[in-house]
Amino acid sequence: MNLEQLKKLKEKAQRQVALREGNKKYRVVVSMGTSGIAAGARDVMKTMLEEIEKRRLDDVEVRVAGELGLEDIEPVVRVEETDGEKTTYARLDAEKTRRIVAEHLEQGKKVDGLAIGKEKNPA
Amino acid sequence: MFEELSLHILDIAMNSMTAGARTVQITVIEDTRRDTLTILIRDDGRGMDAPTLQRVSTTATTTKRSRRKPIGLGLAFLRQTAEMCAGRFQIQSAANAGTTVTASMQRSHVDRPPLGDLNATILTLCAADPAVDVQLHYRSDGQQFDFSSKKHAEQTPARRSRIHSER
Asked: Which of A9, B102, B121, B152 sits most deeply, having the most CB atoms within 10 A of its CB?
């Protein structure tokens, strides 16, 4: 921990504020309860924000949730789309998170190998 | 268990968010002379009444109604870490009066986890709810650093508009 690092935080936080405003095509929900944090959800979140910023994806907002009831397969991320489609990704790490951003959020293709369960479409 | 103190901080501060806090104040004080490291997480959320406070202090508890089995280990984890490191754990709260969690440790204790990536913790909290003022107050032997997400957003409107125009 040093002060230099902390000062960089100010700049970074500001850029990432832009990611969380307005009505976006994709809403990414990161499970950030105790079990998620213990399994590495914070790093997933960090990677997610960095990748979205790097790729300048304007149509994505990132949120957090408490325990989603998926404690044994954390870290868990849910991608919700404006048409109601929801995809849940589990057992994530930084590398898998980068794939989700590159394939799902940028190109609109689900990452089949990482998604769990059946997608729900309430429409 | 968490390997970094900053993960404990994230976990406790997430409780504050869930409790409807508008301000979450995180204070970290390192004192090498007295050999202590103290963490305070104070929020203005809905707080807890005496029976609830009693319960969270002693057992694993969750307030989530949808839960069938109690998970709620966050506070217990922090207490364990503090007590393992010759420190103390305290939680103060009252209904509608916010909650303050304090954990102190012997800074040089062999079991004391590193502070870890505090930046990532603050960023995650900022992203968790843009409407909440996330504050960090860091003190270390006369050095200090203060951050407030609300103040920060107010101070830099020019920068924000530039980001939008870059699209």
From this structure: B121
Rounded distance between C-alpha atoms, residue A108 and residue A112, angstroms: 12
How many domains does chain A fold into? 1
User: A39 φ, ψ to 5°?
Assistant: -85, -10
CATH architecture classification, B5-165: 2-Layer Sandwich (3.30)
Which residues sit opposite A65 in a β-bridge?
Answer: A31
Residues 6+ apart with CB under 8 A from B81: B1, B2, B5, B8, B103, B105, B113
Let me know if residue A99 belongs to a domain: yes
Contacts of B127 in chain A (CB under 8 A): 16, 19-20, 45, 49, 62-64
Rounded to an integer, the average pLDDT of B32-48 is: 96
For chain A positions 79-118, those within 8 Å of chain B (CB to CB) are none
Rg (CA), chain A: 14
Put simply, the chain B residues between 135 and 164 with a CB less than 8 A from any chain A CB are 136, 138, 140, 143, 145, 147, 149, 152-153, 156, 159-160, 163-164
pLDDT (tens digit per residue) in B140-164: 998 999 999 988 888 765 444 334 4
The ipTM value here is 0.80
Does the distance separating the beta carbons of A10 and B124 come in below 8 Å?
no
